[in-house]
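tokens incoming
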């Protein structure tokens, strides 16, 4: 029995050492009864603030983009349309380049205004530009004037039986 007695004493001593280590008492400042809930609330508020801020940036960028596109189209609409040149023969190009366009004097006769703005020769046929229309010899203008002659820088009209000379 001494062996059994010795074994029992050994186990009781081992149990005493295990239970004899004191458990440190929690201090009042170590306890955090609301800490986890407050931390979760803080994280939720920060995420909603970040989402709101991201939305504000998206709206700002969209407004600036819309303003830029509107300004682009506004300023392009205000620019004069580009001049489109049609394909013409070399004789027409040479004739149109040879005569500079300048402001012609205006002649008023019988209530009609006649403005000569250009004279050219296309293949032996003289052409005059009067009031923005291309006219040749014998053509009528406004039903009252007939072109009699086309010379260099001048045109003679027959307006109701009277001659009217237009000069560039």
């Amino acid at each position: 029995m001494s062996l059994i007695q010795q074994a029992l004493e050994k186990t009781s001593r081992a149990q005493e050492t295990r239970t004899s280590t004191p458990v440190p008492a929690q201090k009042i400042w170590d306890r955090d009864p609301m800490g986890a809930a407050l931390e979760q609330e803080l994280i939720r508020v920060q995420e909603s603030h970040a989402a709101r801020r991201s939305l504000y940036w998206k709206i700002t960028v969209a407004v600036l983009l819309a303003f830029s596109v509107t300004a682009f189209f506004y300023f392009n609409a205000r620019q004069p349309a580009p001049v489109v040149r049609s394909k013409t023969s070399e004789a027409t190009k040479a004739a149109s380049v040879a005569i500079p366009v300048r402001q012609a004097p205006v002649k008023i006769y019988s209530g009609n205004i006649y403005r000569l703005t250009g004279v050219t020769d296309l293949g032996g046929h003289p052409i005059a530009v009067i009031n923005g229309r291309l006219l040749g010899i014998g053509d009528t203008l406004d039903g009252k004037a007939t072109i009699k002659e086309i010379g260099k820088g001048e045109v003679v009209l027959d307006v109701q039986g009277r001659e009217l000379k237009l000069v560039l």
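note: DSSP finds three helices and eight strands in the chain.
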